[in-house]
């Protein structure tokens, strides 16, 4: 059988509010998330010998059972009681450890592809529940391009709202450790005054105004645990103005625009003045 292939998109946390640390060690959050037009490519093909293997163009990505895509393959095989082999190929464009959800997206995409390849006929909600046991961010890639995450990240509310912008994303050569960043979160930060979700949603059609309302409670602990990030934020603001926001637990920064030419001009300014990789991508569905 020929390989099945699908794009595996990245995400941005437009807002990320950390509410409290739970007794189980996880954190309660509320986060407005959008998918963006930065994608890996995942392909799956049958292996007749029953083995499950993975190949990736990025040598830093593990190809053993610690990889979320291979975990997804094993979870689906167990769920469907199918002792099936598969070879997974991932072409990475989403940096690892950047707060963009690349590994989680790869796992979700693998579940979708294998559901078709193995004809397991699970529904999207069933696949999402399976994904939740693999990683907290996996289920969001079964939802609408714009949604709200709650709890430790497993409760999601689809937002059938129009949102479209162009995002300039900055990729520092810094790998943020998510667990370490969360450990450094100050519970006192949960009492900071932040715009309400309703207020933020009211500005979805005005990206420039929206940017002034966005926030990330993990940005301060990410800067504390990875001090080099402070220079990234400073250099970006110096080269192309403010504001910039960090996504997830870092290290990627982004800025939204309502006009692609302004976004490209911003990226050009970054390239000219900073030793930073900047890329213009769609966020949501620009008109």
Q: Topology, pairings included?
A:
Layout: E1 4-21, E2 27-47, E3 52-56, H1 68-80, E4 85-91, H2 102-117, H3 124-132, E5 146-151, E6 155-158, E7 164-171, H4 178-183, H5 197-201, H6 207-213, E8 215-216, H7 219-225, H8 228-240, E9 245-246, E10 253-257, H9 260-273, E11 277-284
Parallel strand pairs: 1-8, 3-4
Antiparallel strand pairs: 1-2, 2-4, 2-5, 5-6, 7-10, 7-11, 9-10
> How many beta-strand elements?
11
At CATH level 2, the architecture of the largest domain is 2-Layer Sandwich
Number of domains: 2
Could you tell me the CATH topology label of the largest domain. Answer: Ribosomal Protein S5, domain 2
The percent range for helix content is 25-40%
- Mean pLDDT metric: 93
Beta-strand share of residues: 25-35%
Structural class: alpha+beta
């Amino acid at each position: 059988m020929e390989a099945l292939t699908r794009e595996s998109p990245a995400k941005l946390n437009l807002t990320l509010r950390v509410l409290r640390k739970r007794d189980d060690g996880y954190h309660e959050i509320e986060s407005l998330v959008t998918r963006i037009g930065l994608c890996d490519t995942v392909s799956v093909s049958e292996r007749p010998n029953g083995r499950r293997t993975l190949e990736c163009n990025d040598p830093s990505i593990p190809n053993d059972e610690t990889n979320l895509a291979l975990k997804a393959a094993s979870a689906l095989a167990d769920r469907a009681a199918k002792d099936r082999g598969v070879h997974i190929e991932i072409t990475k464009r989403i940096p690892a450890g950047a707060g963009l959800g690349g590994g989680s997206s790869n796992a979700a995409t693998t579940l979708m592809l294998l559901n078709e390849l193995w004809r397991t006929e699970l529904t999207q909600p069933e696949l999402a529940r399976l994904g939740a046991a693999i990683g907290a961010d996996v289920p969001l890639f079964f939802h609408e391009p714009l949604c709200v995450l709650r709890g430790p990240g497993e409760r999601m509310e689809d937002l059938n709202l129009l949102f479209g912008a162009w995002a300039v994303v900055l990729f520092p050569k810094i790998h943020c450790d998510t667990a370490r960043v969360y450990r450094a979160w100050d519970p006192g930060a949960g009492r900071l005054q932040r715009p309400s979700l309703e207020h933020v949603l009211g500005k979805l059609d005005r990206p420039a105004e929206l940017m002034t309302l966005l926030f990330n409670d993990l940005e301060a602990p990410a800067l504390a645990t990875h001090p080099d990030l402070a220079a990234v934020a400073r250099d970006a603001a110096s080269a192309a103005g403010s504001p910039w926001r960090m996504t997830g637990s870092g290290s990627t920064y982004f800025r939204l625009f309502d006009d692609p030419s302004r976004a490209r001009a911003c990226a050009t300014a970054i390239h000219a003045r900073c030793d930073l990789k900047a890329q213009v991508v769609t966020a949501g569905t620009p008109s």
